[in-house]
Amino acid sequence: MVPFLFVLLIASWVSFILIYQRQSRLIATARKEHEDVRVEEDRVFDFLHGLGEAFTGEIRSDHLHRLIVEGAMRVIEAHGGALYLEDRVRNLLVNRYISKSCPPLIEIPPHILAQVDSTPQALQSYLRLHSVQPGEGLVGEAWHSPEPLLVNSGDPRLEALRDTTLRTGSAMLAPLLYGTQNLGVLAVAEGPMGMPFTVEDLKVFKGVAEQSAFALYNAIIYSEANEKKRLDSDLQVAHEIQRILLPSTAPEFPGFDIAGLNIPARQVSGDYFDYIRIDERRLGVAIADVSGKGVPASLIMAMCRSVLHSHATGNASPSDALKKVNRQLFPDIKEDMFISMAYVVIDSDTGVVTLCRAGHDAPLHYNAAEQVITKVKPPGMALGIDSGAVFDRMAKDFEVVMTSGDVLIMYTDGITEALDAKGAEFGLTRMIQSIHVSASGGARTMIDRITDDVTSFIGPTPRNDDITLIAIRKK
Fold first, then answer.
1. How far is the C-alpha of 191 from the C-alpha of 80, rounded, in Å?
2. pLDDT tens sequence across 235-256
3. Which residues of 78-88 are buried (b: 16+ CB within 10 A; e: fewer)?
4. Greater confidence, 363 or 137?
5. Structural contact between residues 355 and 373, judged by C-beta atoms closer than 8 angstroms
6. Over residues 377-381, mean pLDDT
7. Residue 347 forms beta bridges with which residues?
8. What does the domain layout of the chain look like in residue ranges?
9. Contacts with 386 (C-beta within 8 Å, 6 or more apart), sequence order
10. Does pLDDT of 31 surpass 70?
11. From residue 105, how far is each of 18, 97, 130, 137, 177 by CA, in Å?
C-alpha cells in the first residue's frame, strides 16, 4: 500500500512539474507576444505621431515623403522602402523617395543592371528619375490594384533580379487610396536574407498605407490653400499696380466735362482707359479691351498703355499714334490675343474731337439739340492682328462734330453683354435708355446712371466681364 501511495505521489509531482513547465512556457510566450504587440503599437504610434508633427508647421513635401517611407520601414521592420506619387497630367507614377537599401520594384534595363557592381549610383539615379507607366513592374501593377500586394521569394515577378546582387526576398506594395483619389503607391521590401513578410504584416502595412494616403491628401490640400493665399496676395499687388496705372480722376479740360470708370470683373482687368496730355491745348482719351481676362490680359493692357503714351505725346493724329502702337505691339502679342481700342484727341481751341477706332465698340454720340443717339463707327482693325499693311489702310482720323450739351460715350462690351440670372443681355437698347434719362446731367451723372442700371439688371449674378465707361460732354 505504501509503495503505491509513494508512486502516486511521485506521479502527481511529475504531472505538477510538467503542468508548471507548460504553463510557464505559455506565460512566457504570452508575455513575448504581448511585448511584441506593445513594440508594434509603439512603432505605429511613433509613425502616426511623426505624421502629425509634419502638420504642425510649414509642410515640406520632401520631408513628408521621407517620413512616410522611413516610418513604414520602422513599423514593418523592412529593409527598404519607396514612395511613388501620381502625375495626373502625364498619367505616370513619379518616384518621390526611395531608401538607399530598397531593392528595385520596377523593371530595370539590362544596361543599367550591367553597371550595378561597378557603378551603383547609376541604379539609384535610374530609380529616382524613371517614371512608371500603368502596369509596369510591381509598382505599376500595385498602382491600380484594389488591395495591397504581398510578394515573396519564388514569385515570378521577382525572378528578373534572381541572378543579381539586387535580389528581392519579399515585398509589399499598396495603392494610396483616399476616397476616390488614387495618389500613388507605397512599397516596402526585404533582401534575400531577411524574413519574408506575412499575411499579418500585410494587414499592418495596409493600415500604414491608409494613414499615409490621408497624410498626403491633407498635405495637398494644405499646399493648395497656401498657394491660393500666395496667388491672392500677388493678385492684390497686381490690382494695386493696375489701380495706379488707371486714372483715378478725369482732368479739367477747357470746354469739356469728362468722366471715366473701370470696374474689373476679377481682381485685375483687361480693360483700359486713359487721359493723355498731348500738348498745351490737346488731350487724348483712350479706351481699350484686351481679349481674354485676368492676369495675361492685364499684362497686355499695361504694355499697351506704355506704348500708347510713348507715341501719343505730341501727336495730334489719333490714327498715326495707333499705327505706331500696332507696329510695336504686333511682334509681342500671341496669335490668339488682340486689343480693341477707340482713341480720340480733343482740341480745346477749336472744340474739334478727332476719333480713330481700332476694332472697338462704336462710341455713341448724343445730340443734345435733337435728343438723338447715333453710333460713330469709322472703319478700323483691332491692334495686334496685322503687322501694319492692312491696319494702316483702315485706320483713319474721323472728326466728331459736337455742340453744347452733346456727349460722346465710349464703352467696353462688359456693359452691353452683362447677363442677368436668366442669361439675358443688358444690351445696347437699355444703355441708350440710360443715356437719355441722364443726358441733362453732367458726364459723371451719366456714368453713374449707366453703371447703376447695369448693376440693377444683373442683380446677384457675378459679372463675367470688365466694365469701362468714358463720357465726354461738350459744355
1. 8
2. 566 566 666 678 889 999 999 9
3. bbbbbbbbbee
4. 363
5. no
6. 93
7. 282
8. 37-224, 237-474
9. 326, 330
10. no
11. 50, 13, 12, 7, 20
For the record, the C-alpha cell of 145 comes out as: 490594384
What is the structure's pLDDT at 436?
94
Tell me the three cell numbers of residue 311: 507715341
Record the cell numbers describing residue 114, joined without a space: 550591367
The pTM of the whole model exceeds 0.70: no
Q: List the CATH code of the domain at 237-474.
A: 3.60.40.10
Is the confidence at residue 461, as pLDDT, over 90?
Answer: no
Residues 6+ apart with CB under 8 A from 36: none
Residue 326 has pLDDT above 90, yes or no: yes
Beta bridge partners of 170: 152, 190
Domains 37-224 and 237-474 fall in the same CATH topology: no
**pLDDT(124) > 90:** no
| Chain mean position to CA 60 | 18
Q: Mean pLDDT over residues 212-235, rounded?
A: 75
Work out whether the CA dihedral 155, 156, 157, 161 comes out positive or negative.
positive
Q: What angle do CA 390, 269, 238 make, to 5 degrees?
A: 120
Residue 23: how many CA atoms within 13 Å on its side-chain side?
Answer: 6
Closest to 91 measured CA to CA, from 131, 59, 48: 131
Q: Is the pLDDT of residue 60 over 90?
A: no
Residue 375, φ and ψ in degrees, nearest 5: -80, 140
16 has pLDDT over 60: no
All three cell numbers of 439: 443726358
Find the angle CA(337)-CA(341)-CA(344) to the nearest 5 degrees: 165
On whether the CB atoms of residues 405 and 474 are closer than 8 A, the answer is yes
Check whether domain 37-224 has CATH 3.30.428.10, yes or no: no
Q: Which residue has the higher pLDDT, 394 or 190?
A: 394
Picking from 308, 370, 392, the residue whose alpha carbon sits closest to that of residue 345 is 308
Choice among 8-22, 233-247, 250-264 with the minimum mean pLDDT: 8-22
Backbone angles phi, psi at 401, to 5 degrees: -80, 120
Residues 274 and 339: their CA atoms lie apart, in Å, by 15
Distances (CA, A) of 472 to 20, 48, 84, 266: 109, 68, 63, 27
Cα three-residue angle 375-435-400, rounded to 5 degrees = 35
At 406-427, the pLDDT tens digits run: 999 999 999 999 999 889 999 9
Cα-Cα-Cα-Cα dihedral of 456, 458, 460, 466, to 10°? -110
